[in-house]
Write a structure and sequence with these properties.
Blueprint (H helix, E strand, L loop, with lengths): L1 E12 L2 E14 L17 E5 L5 E10 L4 E6 H9 L12
Antiparallel strand pairs: 1-2, 2-5, 3-4, 4-5
Length: 97
């Protein structure tokens, strides 16, 4: 399950804490019913994909972290591509292999 949400949180870096609010993130629930966590340490930056009704794999975001073992948070890929293209006339393409 994927849903968009607004999350409040605390950013920690080098023993310094700062409260942050992140808007428009995707909250992703694990689809499995076993006790496996949604993600593991080091998964940040991984692509998040959705399988649609015709069995097509679609990139929907970039994984950034967990709320807990069953729920992950991702940045929507359309927001990332829009930010990259902001202020220039570049055409964005994804490389097919």
């Amino acid at each position: 399950m994927v849903r968009y949400s607004i999350k409040d949180g605390t950013l920690r870096r080098d023993n310094e804490e700062r409260n942050i609010t992140m808007h428009g993130l995707m909250e992703i629930s694990s689809a499995s019913f076993d006790n496996n966590p949604f993600s593991k340490h080091g998964d940040s930056g991984a692509g998040v994909f959705l399988v649609d009704d015709d069995n097509t794999l679609i990139c929907v975001g970039i994984f950034i972290g967990n709320l807990n073992d069953r729920i992950g948070i991702a940045l929507p890929i359309d927001n990332i591509l829009t930010a990259i293209n902001s202020g220039n006339d570049l055409q964005i393409k994804l490389k097919e292999f």
